[in-house]
Amino acid sequence: MTITSFYPTPRTLMGPGPSDVSPRVLSALGRPTIGHLDPEFVQMMDEIKSLLQYAFQTKNELTMAVSAPGSAGMETCFVNLVEPGEKVIVCVNGVFGSRMVENVQRIGAQAIVINDDWGTPVDVNKVKQAFKDNSDVKFLAFVHAETSTGVLSDAKALCAIAQENSALSIVDAVTSLGGVELKVDDWGIDAIYSGSQKCLSCVPGISPISFSTKAVEKLTSRKSKVPSWFLDLSLVMGYWGGTGKRSYHHTAPVNSLYALHESLVMLQDEGLENAWQRHKNQHLKLKTGLEKLGIAFVVEEQYRLPQLNTVLIPQGVDDAAVRQTLLNEYNLEIGAGLGGFAGKAWRIGLMGYAARTENVTLCLAALADVLEK
């Protein structure tokens, strides 16, 4: 058998990620590849850093893009900051909080786990109690926007608790960056990571991160080596940070960074607050249409993520059959439920370029048609 070039069927991506990618971003991918130490590329890296500082709303000097997906951004934060034996309070209200626990345990640190029901936000009072019950806690880790459930937790309040207890905060913003209010400096977030493929509407494979001055001090005063060579920021900073000549660390994904640059320019041009409002407006349109179809939300209204809508599958409806029909007949992808929501819920994404009236209209019309059949 002779294998020929691969041409995927164009899809409308309205699942939990990746999201629809703007034609501008796809076009940026096709620009000529240059060297990762080329002066023009280094200048673009500086621009990416500045644009990420805007997106995160931070002045953190250590703000950069990890050359790997959001899961590597998560690991970057944990392996650089947490050392064996240290105590970390980890909030789990979905899949991605559980992954934080895995990171802590693999480092050889002590995870103090706070569990909340899937579909509910992190309980601030439980976090306060955990600090009271445990001495010498070094970190508080939580997911700002839990992709597995569509829940938004109160990052500002949680980071304030960490500060009151002289702990550093590690925050998962994979699904929140660019989609809902997020203010790293104002809220006192110490280490944060995100992904390129959600509300930034870039191609998958890049993880923006940012470390506060306090987080950098913790990194530089480590008693042990960072257990990952590739993710060791003390090495990577020589490539991404500072002035003057950049030191070689790895061959950066040049064209993917073109794409990230373009997506961040688009966010800058739209304006952060406008992007947050756009996601909210499209969510409200989707909400009105879904309720007319008799489809209810899993998450209480005040805790819902506008960019990730988790809804209950109507009784008697075949989950897999509906999603497959949407894909086959409408080239429309929505997400399945995870964990306890598997077979009981759908996750409908309105992230980045997908948060458009055309997408909401298509999704509602397609669902109405398939459910009627």
Helix and strand arrangement:
Blueprint: E1 12-14, H1 23-29, H2 39-56, E2 62-66, H3 70-81, E3 87-92, H4 95-107, E4 110-115, H5 124-133, E5 137-143, E6 145-146, E7 151-152, H6 155-164, E8 168-172, H7 184-187, E9 191-193, E10 207-211, H8 213-220, H9 233-240, H10 254-270, H11 272-292, E11 308-312, H12 319-330, E12 332-336, E13 345-349, H13 357-372
Parallel strand pairs: 1-12, 3-4, 3-5, 5-8, 8-9
Antiparallel strand pairs: 2-10, 6-7, 9-10, 11-13, 12-13
Q: Mind explaining what this structure looks like?
A:
This protein has 373 residues and is an alpha/beta fold. The protein has helices at residues 23-29, 39-56, 70-81, 95-107, 124-133, 155-164, 184-187, 213-220, 233-240, 254-270, 272-292, 319-330, 357-372; strands at residues 12-14, 62-66, 87-92, 110-115, 137-143, 145-146, 151-152, 168-172, 191-193, 207-211, 308-312, 332-336, 345-349. It has a seven-stranded mixed sheet, sandwiched between helices. Strands 1-12-13-11 form a four-stranded mixed sheet. Strands 6-7 form a two-stranded antiparallel ribbon. The two termini are 39 Å apart.
